[in-house]
Amino acid sequence: MTGRARTDRTEPLAVTGIGLVTPAGIGTRATWDRVCAGVPTAATDPELTGLPVPFSCRVPGFDPRIHVGVRQAWRLDRCTQFGITAAREAVADAGLDPASWDGARVAVVMGSAAGGVTTYESQHTRLLRTGPRSVSPLTLPAFLPNMAAGQTALALDARGPALHTATACASGATALIVAAMLLREGACDIAVAGGTDAMVTPLCVTAFAQMGALSGRAGNPAAASRPFDADRDGFVLAEGAGVLVLERTADAATRRAPVHALFAGHGSTTDAHDPVAPHPEGRGVRDALVRALASAGAGPTEVDHINAHGTSTPLNDAREAGVLRRLFGARPPTVTSTKGVTGHPMGAAGSIEAALTALTVSHQLAPPTANFRRPDSGTGELDLVTGEAYKHPVRLALSTSAGFGGHNTALAFRPPE
Asked: Which of 239, 243, 259, 376 is deepest in the core (most CB within 10 A)?
């Protein structure tokens, strides 16, 4: 690979690799299968016993000694471990080998809402309980937010730009937008990009519960995450990572790489309304969708499917449903919120859902929204996919994300040409 000149900003990019570590499974195939089956992952969490909300969506069976190695397992925060694991799968899926690529032409962009919060909480507890001498000298390298990008670059020998994005729950989606910009500016030839978070911790769970953001269905956790359902009462906190490999379509064609989907466009906006509450009319998310469509050279009538942010909170789902209803009118696309299965993995949500949207386009298969039973007046006009996944022709699919601070993103994907 050699340096490239700037490319047309409207040119689609190729998604050549996907890596996933989610509550639905470790690996893309495991996650996709469970998401398509519509089987929720929320369960009672022994580590949250005694807290206001004692359940979560954890990544099952994750052993860092296996996935990042024994030596690194105790050096890296869980957030970074997830990111490296997903990145390695994505790179292998793309048919790339870090041992033979030109690392100076490879960028890494990783998003996270909180960085190494597991390390931060555990080491702060040590400080309070047993004093300064018990605090690990590896604390800062483990919990600094940029370390997911830095350590992933180290693991892959990627020596181009290594950047961290922080737009709360839109962080992973923002990372993909930044990666697309780097490719189009000629700053790299390959971008390994996505999001990772491991915020299922006592402090984070308690803080979200105190805000009233979490579901309180402790008696039936599996039914707690219910996007767009009339009985939704909050989201379920989750963890995980999603990473995509992006390349210019010409480069992917030259090396005859597999292409899952084309990353056709994106939009990013800010509500400028409130630190945590969404704009009542969904102004920011609507504008992000409009910009993504313009970037993709498409109109609303060309959209066949949307992977919605769909957190299962009363405010978010009503606002998002209203935006989709007004923007797409009498011919609404099908809509899925995969958080019914995965819960809400915070900064990783946008990239996990982008990966699932790319897979929807690749397989021409629309996953269901788990736990949906009945609509309310705000969500009833959506063409929501429920029950089972089904074959669905998709010319253009969108993935939406939003985060505290008023951040909004929309990503557009097309089938490979």
From this structure: 243
Catalytic residue among 266, 305, 309, 392: 309
Residue 279 among the catalytic residues: no
Q: What is the pLDDT of residue 400?
A: 98
What pLDDT does residue 329 have? 87
Q: Is 305 a catalytic residue?
A: no
Tell me, what's the pLDDT at 410? 98
Residue 156 neighbours by CB distance under 10 Å: 23
CA angle 400, 209, 201 (to 5 degrees): 85
Nearest to 321 by CA among 369, 281, 275: 281
**Closest C-alpha among 264, 247, 214, 248 to residue 52:** 214
Q: Strand ranges (DSSP E) for 209-357?
A: 239-248, 261-270, 305-307, 334-336
Question: Alpha-carbon distance 202 to 192, whole Å?
Answer: 31
Residue 281's pLDDT is what? 84
Given the DSSP bridges, would you call strands 13-22 and 25-26 parallel, antiparallel or unpaired? antiparallel
Which two three-digit tokens encode residue 409? 């993103």
Q: CA 383 from chain center: how many Å? A: 23
pLDDT mean for each 10 residues of the chain (417 residues): 58 96 98 98 98 98 96 94 98 97 98 97 96 96 96 98 98 98 97 98 97 97 98 98 98 96 97 84 93 97 97 94 92 95 98 98 98 90 93 97 96 95
Catalytic member of 169, 266, 305, 392: 169
The catalytically annotated residue of 164, 266, 344, 407 is 344
Specify whether 204 is catalytic.
Answer: no
Helix/strand number for the chain, H first, E second: 14, 16
DSSP character string of 220-254: -GGGT--TT-TT---B-BBEEEEEEEEEEHHHHHH
CA distance to 101, 136, 162, 256, per residue, from 165 (Å): 25, 26, 10, 31
- What pLDDT score was predicted for residue 1? 45
**DSSP structure class, residue 279:** P
Kindly tell me the burial class for residue 381, based on how many C-beta atoms sit within 10 Å of its own C-beta (0-12, 13-18, 19 or more): middle
pLDDT for 331 equals 83
